[in-house]
Amino acid sequence: MDKSRKPGSRIAALAFPLILAAAVGGGILLWQPLTGIFRDPQRARAWVESLGAAAPLAYVGLQFLQVVVFIIPGEVVQIGGGYVFGFWGATILSSLGILAGSVFNYYVGRLAGRPFVERLVKPEVLARLEKAAASGREAAGFFLLYVIPSIPKDALSYVVGMSRISLPLFILISGIGRLPGILGSAFIGNSAYRGEYGTALAVLTVAACLFFAGLVFKDRLTDAVHRLLSRRPKDGPR
User: Fold this and answer.
1) How many CA atoms lie within 13 A of 7 on its CB side?
2) 238 burial class (0-12, 13-18, 19+ CB within 10 angstroms)?
3) Contacts of 167 (CB under 8 A, 6+ apart)
4) Which of 6, 18, 51, 189 is most buried by a 10 A CB count?
5) Which of the 8 DSSP states describes residue 230?
6) Residue ranges of the alpha helices (H) in the chain?
7) In sequence order, which residues have a C-beta less than 8 Å from that of residue 17 and are 6 or more positions away?
8) Closest by alpha carbon to 120, among 159, 167, 162, 178?
9) Is 180 exposed, middle or buried (0-12, 13-18, 19+ CB in 10 A)?
10) Are residues 68 and 107 in contact, defined by beta-carbon separation less than 8 angstroms?
C-alpha cells in the first residue's frame, strides 16, 4: 500500500456522513422494492416493466447505489435483475451499475484516504486486506481477494483506492473478480422466472455453501493470499 498519500481531512470528514446518510436513505427507499421481489415477484416485474425505457436505467442506478451503500445485499438486487431482465440483460445491466459504483468507491477511497476508509472498514478487516495485498504484487493480491466468497467487495473498492493500482487495472481486476457472482445471481433469478425452481435452488445452495465456507475460512484465506504472494521466486540455475 502507498501510505505516503495523505488526503485532506476535510474530504474525509465530509465523505463519511454523506455515505452514512446514503446508507440510511437507501435502506428506507429500497426496503419495499427489494422485499417486494420475494413477496410478489410477478407484481415487482410488472412494476418495473411499467417504467418502460427507463427501467434499465433505473436498475443500473439501483445497482450503483447498492455498491456505494454496501450494507445492501448485492445478491438480492442481482437475482431480482435476473428475474426481471433475463440472464443476459441482468448480467449486462448489473455489470454497468457495479462498475459505476466501484469506480465511485475507488475515487472516494483515493481522495478521502485512510481516515475515511477506517470509519467504514473494521480495523482488523482493513489490516488483513492490506496484509494480503501488501506483498509487492498488489494487483494479484486484490484480484484473489475479489474472487474469495464473503469478502466485502464493495468496501474493498474503497481500500483499493488507497493503493498504487491505476483505475484501468482496478476495473479489470474487479470486473473479472465479480463476474462469477453476477452470472450466478442472474442465472438464479432468470431460472426462477422461468419456473425452474429446482435449478435455481440448486445454484443458490451451491452459492450459499461457498459464501459460508468463505465466511468461516475468510481469515485463513486472506492470510494464505499474503503468504502465496510474499514468496520469492526460487533462484534459477547459476
Assistant:
1) 21
2) exposed
3) 103, 106
4) 189
5) H
6) 9-39, 41-49, 54-68, 74-112, 114-120, 123-133, 138-147, 153-161, 167-193, 197-216, 218-230
7) none
8) 159
9) middle
10) no
| Residue labelled with grid coordinates 493500482 | 165
Determine the straight-line distance between the first and last CA of the chain, rounded to whole angstroms: 33
